[in-house]
Amino acid sequence: MLDDEPKRAAEMGKTAFEQRQRAALTPAQCRQLADLGLLEEQIDQLQRALPKAAHQLAVRPTMTAVRKVVTSLHDDVARARKAIEVLLAARGVPGRREYLEAYERLAYRVQGRGEPVSDGLELERALEGLKSLARIVGTAVEELGPQKRGGQGSHVPVMLLHRAMADGWAVANPDDPLLPDDWRTFGAVVNVCYDAIRGPGTPEPERSVKNYRAWLNKARTTGLQID
Q1: Can you tell me the distance from the alpha carbon of 150 to that of 63, in angstroms, rounded to the nearest whole number?
Q2: How far apart are CA 196 and CA 198, in angstroms?
Q3: pLDDT of 83 above 60
Q4: What is the DSSP letter of 202?
Q5: Which candidate among 27, 185, 198, 202 keeps its CA 20 to 30 Å from the CA of 158?
Q6: Is 160 found in the same domain as 139?
Q7: Which domain holds residue 110?
Q8: Given pLDDT bands bounded at 50, 70 and 90, which one contains residue 199?
Q9: Distance of CA 102 to the CA centre of its chain
Q10: How many other C-beta atoms can be found within 10 angstroms of the C-beta atom of residue 34?
Q11: Share above pLDDT 90 across residues of the chain, in percent, rounded to a whole number
């Protein structure tokens, strides 16, 4: 079964790529957006953002598969960190000269003429880097926890579309670059864009818009960088 995973991943990647390539607003949809009050610059930015939004709406891996990758990385980092710690601790142990020579060969890498190209602290720096990486991966493992992948409620595609509208507004209004909040119009804009991405008849992305608004409110409240 494991041998089939790269093939399945490649097929999923091909599907996502093809979906990104097809994502584009039709002239009729551009007129719809203009009728909603969008500026030409905003429509242009939305057109540019559609492939990225389409990628986010493509087939996504299960949370179990994501958790497996992150957990595997966590275990690999832990093993590498342990190996370096053992080497550093054993290099001064009497009778274990192999550790000392291994350390010296790794710590003082040399060029063809035997000239050192490092200061002897390569492994110590690598260990500190692995400690930082272990904290990052450990946090990711904890955050994944038992959570499951939701349906089509991801806020990310909607976020990309909102940023595109904001960018277009800023281009057209350099003296007043902050996009006014108009969530009713924005919901209609998202519907048009989702139709362009996934075809007519797509269910309205109300849940995604709702999740995005919740995420945005939290980001603004906590001071999270959202640009």
Answers
A1: 9
A2: 6
A3: yes
A4: P
A5: 27
A6: no
A7: 63-144
A8: low
A9: 38
A10: 13
A11: 37
Prediction pTM value: 0.55
What's the full length of the chain, in residues?
227
Please state, in angstroms and rounded to a whole number, the distance separating the CA atoms of residues 130 and 83.
11
Please give the structure tokens belonging to residue 102. 């291994």
**Residue 128 and residue 70 share a domain:** yes
Q: What six digits make up the tokens of 106? A: 């790794």
Per-residue 3-state assignment (H helix, E strand, C coil) for 63-94: HHHHHHHHHHHHHHHHHHHHHHHHHHHHCCCC
pLDDT at 80: 93
Residue 200 has pLDDT above 60, yes or no: no
Instruction: Specify if 227 maps to a domain.
Output: no
In 3D space, the residue among 117, 116, 130 whose CA is nearest the CA of residue 88 turns out to be 130
* pLDDT (mean) for 200-207: 66
Which residue type, as a one-letter code, is found at position 167?
D
Residue 110, φ and ψ in degrees, nearest 5: -125, 160
Q: Side chain identity at 64, as an amino acid letter?
A: T
8 A C-beta contact, residue 164 and residue 42: yes
Task: State the chain's mean pLDDT as an integer.
Answer: 81
Q: Work out how many domains the chain is built from and give that number.
A: 2
Nearest to 52, CA basis, from 23, 11, 9:
23
State pLDDT tens for residues 32-63: 999 999 999 999 999 999 999 888 777 566 77
Residue pair 194/202 in contact by the 8 Å Cβ criterion: yes
Q: Answer yes or no: do 136 and 156 share one domain.
A: no
Strand, helix or coil at 192? helix
Enter the DSSP assignment of 149.
-
